[in-house]
Amino acid sequence: MGIKGFIGALLLTGSGCFAQADSITSAYIQKFPDKLSVQLFTLNTSNQFTLDYEDIGTTINMVPNERRTLGVSVQYDFISFNLGFAPKFFAENKDNRDSKMTSFGLNLFLGKWMQHFDLYYQKGISLEVDDYESVYLSGLKTIKIGGSTSYVFNDNYSFRALAFQNERQLKSTGSFAPSLSYYYTEFNGRKEPQLGGKSYFLDVALSPAYNYNWVVAKNILIAGGLSLGAGVTYTKDGSISDTDFLTQAGLTLSLGYNSETFYGGVYAKVLASNHNADTAVNMDDTIAYGTVFFGYRFDPPRFLKEKTEEIKEKIKI
Questions:
Q1: Which end of the chain, N or C, is less packed with Cβ atoms under 10 Å?
Q2: Which residues, 6 or more positions from 4, have their beta carbon under 8 angstroms from its beta carbon?
């Protein structure tokens, strides 16, 4: 089913979709537990890599070709997911010779815990070196899969309001929210004649973080977060393997309008990792994206409400 058909199906099954939102309100947070939230977004995103060859003083930037992504995000109760792909009708995607970009994300809000999973798939990458012409490798693919587990200390802080989903922050507040992140990243050059083979690395890091939601006006929010962490990385490149120290830094910023039914705004996130290898080659790994989004909340179909309640009962949420 295409994206238009998917959105249409959601709208058709949401009887009474223009009804006033049901909500649960406290002094700091307004929740919409019985509303299905659908969001359309367009974003620029990529997983970029930098290889630093210290012994010869050369740095190679690995830049994916396709950037502009169109996506849909859906949230109901404690779960949300999003799917994005890079269609050819965007002007900046038309000259990317057989390149691809797909992303998927899943969030679970379990009380004061937030569980996040995501996946990035890229095909077609340019190798860029200062003072040299870039080299395009159409057969080089990368995949990153993993996520993070976070804990929010302040009950008055809304993690969901940061991304303008099914909660709204009513009063400004922040929270310490440490997270444990874990990612598997693979380079697959088996279909690239100049490379052959594949390599991968595993990252695990613990990152103290602080997030703040600033309520500028009744329906306008500025939000952000900063994290700094460290961990270990395991690298496997052909017959060579290595375990090294890992440092990470993350930054999130968002600005938008959030009413009881309609919401929209901009959201940006950067996660940078440095693999401090003992070998002659160091790698920096950066995921960065900026998105513009528009969403609407409406009544869910009855079967979705019943099924969600069954799941919540089983897992004791």
A1: N
A2: none
